[in-house]
Amino acid sequence: MSEYPLGIKPKADHFPRRNRIMSGISLGVLVTEAGEGSGAMITASQALEQNREVFAVPGSVLSPASRGTNRLIKEGAKLVSGVQDILEELNLTMIPRQIEMRELVPQNETESLIVKHLSYEPTHIDKVCRSSCLPIATVSSTLAMMELKGIVRQMGGMNYILSREARSSYRVGAN
């Protein structure tokens, strides 16, 4: 995820801007290990500015790689010793059960249209754009959301497939 167009090579100074977006769309940020001036500390700072939760895994007081996480905890970040700490803090303890019970149906016409152009064989995003007559920005963002929902999977190289469990629900929900 990035605010830069497709094809732009990664650069170190792009990461803080990308991480600002990542923290902005997240409920919280977990820092597992960080030096004092690391990118993880920049991301944690951005998360705080965006009113997101900040979680940190404590480390040895002797380790330079733990100075950042230990400072975060000292300044009020939530100490994390396991995934349950995060789930409880964000009131997400029921999520695993909800995921098991969710029904995969198209959320809108764009998802319905895109799923008609996918199968269990990898399909490149450019082919989906051509066959659906949708702009690349629409297809890319919709596929990203569908991937988060577990409806599609990216197989690398911008090739997508339908998740096995999604296909039958989409046939029922999409005409």
Written overview of the protein:
The protein has two domains: about 10-100, 3-Layer(aba) Sandwich (Rossmann fold); about 110-175, Orthogonal Bundle (Arc Repressor Mutant, subunit A), CATH 1.10.10.10. The chain is elongated, with a radius of gyration of 20 Å. Helix 1 (about 15-25) packs across helix 2 (about 40-50). It has helices at about 15-25, 40-50, 65-75, 85-90, 95-100, 110-115, 125-130, 135-150, 165-175, and strands at about 30, 55, 80, 125, 150-155, 160. A three-stranded parallel β-sheet has the order 1-2-3, covered by helices on one side. The chain has a three-stranded antiparallel β-sheet with strand order 4-6-5. Mean pLDDT is about 85; it is low at about 165-175. It is of the alpha/beta class and about 180 residues long.
Low-pLDDT runs of 5+ residues are: 166-175
- The helix fraction, in percent, is 40-55%
Largest sheet: 3 strands, parallel
CATH architecture of the largest domain: 3-Layer(aba) Sandwich
Q: What is Rg?
A: 20 Å
Question: What value does the average pLDDT take?
Answer: 85
